[in-house]
Design goal:
This protein is α+β, with helices and mostly antiparallel strands. 15% of the residues lie in helices and 28% in strands. It is built from two helices and seven strands; from the N terminus they run H-E-E-E-E-E-E-E-H. The strands form two sheets. It has a four-stranded antiparallel β-sheet with strand order 2-1-6-7, covered by helices on one side. A three-stranded antiparallel β-sheet has the order 3-4-5, with helices on one face. The radius of gyration is 15 Å and the shape is globular. 25% of the residues are buried.
Length: 148
């Protein structure tokens, strides 16, 4: 059976926006496939303002959430696998939902992947600058490098 999380996430997001609330997405940054502004990750998590005025090209797929946003004036393409999405809530009053663990995502996390294989969530693999990588858990280093 397919997981409930993507459907509940889209419904909750729509409800929050329809009620003029500011949706914030809580993401577990340690999940494989996350593309995040690593300098803002705290205690393995990041809270992202995903309101229509804060992000561009927001897409909530069944396998991942992605959008473009600016962090401290720098543009970022953010990708969060659905397995990494922990909660969605309103900044103004805390209304929202905390997503429970689902066996579908636990099984995905148990898969062992190499850097050359696509992620189990269908999200593109993360490419992180070396200076920002120190803020996240240690993983295999990529064969890709940042060109400035």
């Amino acid at each position: 059976m397919s997981p409930r999380r993507p459907y509940l996430l889209r419904a909750m997001y729509e409800w929050l926006v329809d009620n003029q609330l500011t949706p914030h997405l809580v993401v577990n940054a340690s999940i494989t496939g996350c593309q995040l502004p690593w300098e803002f990750v705290k205690n393995g998590q990041i809270v992202l303002n995903v309101s229509p005025t804060a992000v561009a090209q927001l897409q909530m797929h069944n396998e991942f959430v992605e959008f473009n946003a600016r962090f401290s004036g720098k543009p970022h393409h953010v990708v969060a696998p659905m397995a990494a999405v922990m909660a969605l809530y309103a900044r103004e009053n805390g209304a929202g939902t905390l997503f429970e663990e689902e066996a579908y995502y636990s099984e995905e996390r148990d898969m062992s992947l190499t850097d050359d294989e696509p992620t189990a969530t269908g999200a593109p693999p993360a490419v992180e600058p070396a200076a920002e990588a120190s803020n996240k858990p240690k993983r295999k280093t990529s064969h890709l490098k940042v060109v400035k």
